[in-house]
Amino acid sequence: MTEMFEQMEPAMLDFAEMAETNQSQLRFVEAINIVKAQRESVEHKFREEITRGFKEFLQGKPITYPVDVVEKNAQIELDIVEYDDLEQRIAIQNIVSKAHNKWFKEIYALRQRLSMLRGGKKLPEEDIPAGPAHIASAFQIASDLFDLEQDKLLILYALFDKFVLTESGTIFESINSRLIDAGIFPNFKVDIEINPRTGEIREKKKTGSGFEPSAKEAAGGTGKGKGEGEGGGSQSLGDELFDNIRSMLKSKRKSDPRYKDHPDFNPAAANVQMIETPALASAITNVQPKQSASYLPEANSEGELPQTVELDQNLIQEVRQTLVAERERLFTEVDRNKIPSADLDTIEMVGMLFEEVLNEKHLPNIAKALISHLHTPILKVAVIDHKFLVDNSHISRRLINLMVDSGTQWIDEEDLRKGIYYPMQDLIKKILAKFKEDNLGVFDEAYESLDKRISDLVQKAHIVETRTQEASRGRERLESARSRAHHAIEKKLGDRSIPHALDRFLNHAWLDKLILMLLRDPDVEQTREWSDAMVVVDKVIWCFDACTDPETHGQLPIAIKELKTLVEEGLMTLGEYHQPDSDELFSMLQSYADKTVEEAAPSIRKDAKDAASPKAVARTRSKPLSGKEKEILEELKELEFGTWFELDDTSGNSYRVKLSWLSPVTRKCMFVDSSGVQSSVIPIDSLARKMGAGQARVIEQHKVPFVDRAMETIKNILGKALGIQQAPA
Question: Model-level pTM?
């Protein structure tokens, strides 16, 4: 219990952080102080209760409990039990059940040996001293001393479950060892089996008839306790989740009047012959749709596939009703009270699984409708092979994961012919047509085909995206070089007003020369070659100034001749494209040189005035980012390339894009679609504003496969419906 109490404070503080009000937070802090203050008294009371249980056992008496820890009556009278007491009872019963399931072999052996001490009389589970029921009850009684509010107490129960009862296997092993040393059943071998329809544990019959394997054993589990095989006594996450869901479904079904004649849920019901798996699978086949629904697109009379399809806004509700109708038709084929409880669990879990397909946030509606056609085939798979529900490597489960995850990325309702919609539709049609009870291979074929199709699309998209990135980087380098070259020329010109011919030469012909130099060598500005190029700019400006300067006007003819030689040499690498710009420049300079300063000045002023472009309107500075937007901006800077976003267009429609590249110069984000084609370019500040306004969102990339996520959601939904407090992770 030491570790449990050490983890209590961090757990309470985690819940305090999630509290909605300051008052609620203070109550969690107060609970921490109460637990710390009462810890010693609670531990003492816990030990007293454990000791009392052993004394009662040694006296041949049943262990007494203030309330039943082990559920004895399937019909719980909810109306006479206080709600808080009911929550506590359910929580205690759940943790007792989990411990019993985890250590059932050790507990079974202990129960048999202790029964020998009672003269061979069968010992009820709750009368096992230091058994799960006894330990849990002792803590329940002791924890009353805390006098905590209900939610805080349930947190302690969850911690007790995780750090004490779930790890109690060593206690059972220790007691078994001491009894063996005392000569009580020293050679006893645990040889038991579980009835998958009732969960009942029995000794195996020597005749070999026995029960069918449990769901866990069918899934490849050994069922061995700690120390009896590889992996020890711990359940896999899939098994544990499956058991939790089954337990809650059982609780839910007990109060459902439709199952009043089912012997597993009503002890008073008459015994009936349960339907066998082949008959149930056959009934599922009878309700399986033979073809795809009318709302899905089909090729026209000429064999052309529609690019888009107009979907009814109530499509998902229609699909949901179809799935419910399929299950109800199954219950008209087979009496639900004759279906084994394990198969009833399977039917309900598969139904809820496909409900989660319809709830998947980013999956297009047309993909949801298409995948829902696999409801009855997958149900039949799960009934035939229980591995589907617990083994995440099961091929049918992997196929569902692949279809949901790839459908999110590779199905576009605006263009169904692009991506995987029609290939996926063909595969589902093939499954509906070819899947028989003994032909699970059709799912292998479908998975391999779809996986290859997606791999091809990913490879093509990668090639296109790489080219898109290279093109963007090229444009970025060009814009950077243009900006640097233009800045260098403008710095030389200062605030001069210059004629069109001069502006055309410097900001077109010679600008291209400088840009080319910068593209070839980003550090060229530090070289002699760049200095020589800038000398040409200086000489052009000198010649222009000399046209109106009496002191230097006489030097113009020689200067123009030297300049012409430098320009011709400089433009040789650019071909003859800029020759007209050069000719116009020297024609203008020569005309000014042929005139006196007094004659040239009016012409120069007129040419400069005519060439002067309207001053650029000063851009309105963007509004500074808000505090929230600045936080978003910092988060954006840390995002990895490949992160998917959902953006809203001007009409409010959403579309998915991937962050492919961020310019280190302009700080613009380039987004591509699933095919790798550039979709949009957005400055990172503007993106932060969009996200702050809810017009752009990062799409969470799930690391857990879809079916695993769905099963966890199903557990939470059932727990909420039954009023069960979920233990903190």
Answer: 0.56
